[in-house]
């Protein structure tokens, strides 16, 4: 597993609800490097006809010898670590990255990844703000929201229709989505309070992690800043 998310700014607000999210330990796999040895060969003819002298290097000479530093092995990150089904019947494919994650379908975009609940008041208060941002049709922005209070998918579809939600919605009841929620909890050290925002720049780097409700000005400020990081 790669290192935890870097460049994270965490803001704790009092307007947060609780949700259910389990977390597990992750371990890093060490990289093993090997050194090659080169052997010198002497022909039998040279040994037979030439008198050779072998000099033993002194301690001082050994001390002054230098060795080349080993070449670091390039770090590679896993592809397609998750395939998440959306409520609209599409799929989101996720790659691992050093400082975040990359949604294959939304490369080069600012991504607002939100974890919310259908009966969480500050979560519900954010929905009109997110709808308005989506209506502005930013080609370089995507909003992805995951419902984590276990509302069944069919009821979540009705919830989406009643609220007029126009951005991507995922159910937390799906097996892959449950694993993804746990994965984010581990990497972001998220305790499960909602609403919870992870904002990624166009390179998939996590730049903002925020617990608690936000208003229109805060969302737009984050978007305006991250869209410049191309």
Compact overview of the structure:
This protein has 230 residues and is of the alpha/beta class.
Topology (SSEs and partners):
Blueprint lengths: L9 E3 L31 H6 L9 H6 L17 E4 L5 E7 L2 E4 L6 E7 L4 H15 L5 E7 L5 H11 L4 E4 L3 H14 L7 E5 L5 E6 L4 H11 L4
Parallel strand pairs: 1-9, 5-6, 6-7
Antiparallel strand pairs: 2-3, 3-4, 5-8, 8-9
What key phrases describe this protein's structure?
230 residues; alpha/beta; Glutaredoxin; 6-stranded mixed β-sheet; 3-stranded antiparallel β-sheet; 9 strands; 27% helix; disordered N terminus
Explain this structure.
- The protein is an alpha/beta fold and 230 residues long.
- It has a domain at 10-18 and 81-226: Glutaredoxin, CATH 3.40.30.
- It is 27% helix and 20% strand.
- The chain has helices at residues 44-49, 59-64, 121-135, 153-163, 175-188, 216-226, and strands at 10-12, 82-85, 91-97, 100-103, 110-116, 141-147, 168-171, 196-200, 206-211.
- It has a six-stranded mixed beta sheet with strand order 1-9-8-5-6-7, covered by helices on one side. A three-stranded antiparallel beta sheet has the order 2-3-4, with helices on one face.
- A hairpin with a 5-residue loop joins strand 8 (196-200) and strand 9.
- The two termini are 26 Å apart.
- Residues 1-15 and 20-54 have low confidence and may be disordered.
